[in-house]
Structures are given as C-alpha cells and as structure tokens.
Amino acid sequence: MNFKRILITGAPGTGKTAVINALENAGFHCFHEVIRSMTLDAKTQQHPDTVLNNPIAFVSDSKRFNQQLLDARKQQFDHAINQEQAVVFYDRGMPDVLAYMDYFEQAYTSDFIHACKTNRYDAVFLLPPWEAIYVQDNERLETYPQATEIHEHLFKTYSSLGYDVMEVPFGTIAERLSFMLNHLDKAHA
Predict the structure, then answer these.
(1) Strand-by-strand arrangement of the 29-31 sheet
(2) Which of 111, 124, 150, 183 is the most exposed place for a label (fewest CB within 10 A)?
C-alpha cells in the first residue's frame, strides 16, 4: 500500500502528545513515543536520591539504551506497512536519537546515521518550545531552558538529513492540527 509517514517531533513539553491524541481521535493511526516506558524502566535502576535527567544521560550504557531506542522506532517505522491508511503519524522518529545524542555530547557510529538516512519520513512537523504549557513530570525530566536547546538540536539534525522541517505555530490543539493537515493536503494535492 502506498501511504505517507508523517513525523511529529519537538522538545519535551511542546504539546506533541496532545496533538497525537487529537489525530487518533480524528481516526488517524498514530505510533506513540516509546521513550516514556524506557525512562520509567531506566529510573528503577537508579538510586532514589539521584538527581535525574533524560535517561540518555543517566543510564549505565547510553549507547545500548540509544540502540534500543533507535530499534524501537525502526520497528514502528516497519510496522506502518501493516496499516490500512493513507497517512500514519509518528510521535518522534529515528533522527531524534541522533539529536539527543548530540545534545548530550555522546558519540554514535555510522550505523545510527545510516538508519536515519535510509528510513525516510514523508513530512516532519516540529513543535517549538512553549513555556506557557511546559510542565516537568516523572518522565519529562528536562528544564524549560534545556528543552529550548533540544529544540535547536532537533531542527539541526532533521535539516542536516535533508528534511524540510515545518515548525507548527502556537495555538489550540485544533489550530495546530488544522495547520498540519492543511499543509499535508496542499503538499499532496
């Protein structure tokens, strides 16, 4: 089946989950972010008094953790072929792994880059940091200033891989959804 893979990304706390939930409620198939469950698992291996940050920074073997994350996102990419819809959405994609590794100044091998270059999304929407809605929680461990830095790394990574990154303006969930769907309609008309 010929279908479009649409990626929604952004730093923590930008409203991705709300947009993904709205897309699902509108009948679209959405692949959810996999790192939240991985974060909870990684936190169970830490001392309770440890100050935590993103699990990429605190796990004992960050390369292994990132490989597992890349593999999980690749599985989502591959499973899209089983969907019977013209458009599928992803909450984060494989290049996010590179962006976060760059942010945390972690080295990665060419196989990470190869996976991102050979498994292409048809469109990338980037939700910018939005301080008014930003909330830290048990899985969103970054501060707002860190989120703005991560945003820059995401934009740079996707751009360097040849994507035309479309930044989604602030607005209600319905307005953001409308922006994305209208853009997709125009691009594929």
Answers:
(1) 29-31, 87-91, 4-10, 123-127, 165-167
(2) 111
